[in-house]
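Technical annex B. To support the medicinal chemistry partners, we prepared a structural model of the target in complex with adenosine-5'-triphosphate, based solely on the information shown next.
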Amino acid sequence: MGAEVVVEGLTKSFGRQTIWRDVTLTLPPGEVSVMLGPSGTGKSVFLKSMIGLLKPDRGRCVINGVDIVSCSEHKLYEVRKLFGVLFQDGALFGSMNLYDNVAFPLREHTKKSETEIKRIVLEKMEMVGLTGAEKKLPGEISGGMRKRAGLARALVLDPEIILCDEPDSGLDPVRTAYLSQLLIDLNAQIDATILIVTHNINLARTVPDNLGMLFRRELIMFGPREVLLTSEEPVVEQFLNGRRLGPIGMSEEKDVATMAAEQELADAGHHDGSTEDVRGVVPQLQPTPGLPERQGVRRRKDRVMSILHTLPPAAQEGIIESLTPEDQHRYNVRPHMFATVPAGHRPSPSPRDRITGDLGVAQVPQTQWRPPAPGEGGGV
Ligand SMILES: Nc1ncnc2c1ncn2[C@@H]1O[C@H](COP(=O)(O)OP(=O)(O)OP(=O)(O)O)[C@@H](O)[C@H]1O
């Protein structure tokens, strides 16, 4: 099983420019998480901070009991071996063929024999669908193949945590769909904890178990996918639907006057540039038939059901509806069950839960939802 990553109060600045502050989240072991955010919000800086390539100013990032922010260089070196990283451009050596690129970490960090290295390299290349391309140079293959090669290289040291920096960048939608499937298939096969940073809406909707979003120097949400997919938070809705209308502007933030002017144009019938308006929880990608079941999904069910009562009503509904009838029976829940429970009898999270984020992995901002007023339906 992959390692858990616990991030607490992480803050990073470059000089006087704060990139993000007080980021707190947990990547549950063996689950797939996606971090969204407009360009320049510090998603790549976040990934680099997690492997100790950048040093945060404050906070903790704990992996297997080691805080990589404050640990010694030696410990950091050890912890880094748990990670496999897929960089944006694959970060392959242009002068080496794919075989040697994939073999590189094994030759560099282990004392394995060439026979053993060959076995591992061919196995990983097969996992990413690159069998037969061993002799190709990175310059001779497509962007999608380069990503796959980068992924194969990230896998050779059997990582417990895989970080993917915009795996879709430069890929067409079809290749992105294949890569999304590959990430889910890999997770099913090796049960690693995966964090993907991306702006790709389709990938964000269909791949992860957990979704988060960075905006305005903060982690505005992080939690089970159903929380963001059903969120009415304007910035989340705008991003997930690729709209111009909303708080995100050309240079990340918009002033009130610009927002009002755009709203006026939209009200007058001017199209705002979005081609889709998808709401709610779309089905999650499943491993290709024949591959093992994802262990992370099984564990997540128990985890999410244990924090269900702390989540916003629409997310609860989405989670319950995505369960099989057997699971609904097992957890003693059914769709729309809370709408019929009298308000006074519904368990509700304490205010402390919402303020301090004691929500397991969910970091739902205080403004995101409120306990329903007496007589109001739909809440817990
Ligand atoms: N080493 C560095 N020194 C100074 N500033 C940096 C450094 N690395 C990143 N930054 C700044 O941090 C900010 C966030 O950059 P980052 O690349 O993490 O954004 P991002 O969300 O990944 O963007 P994109 O989606 O466009 O890749 C940017 O303003 C960038 O200029």
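Notes passed to the chemistry partners:
The first helix runs from residue 43 to 50.
The mean pLDDT is 83.
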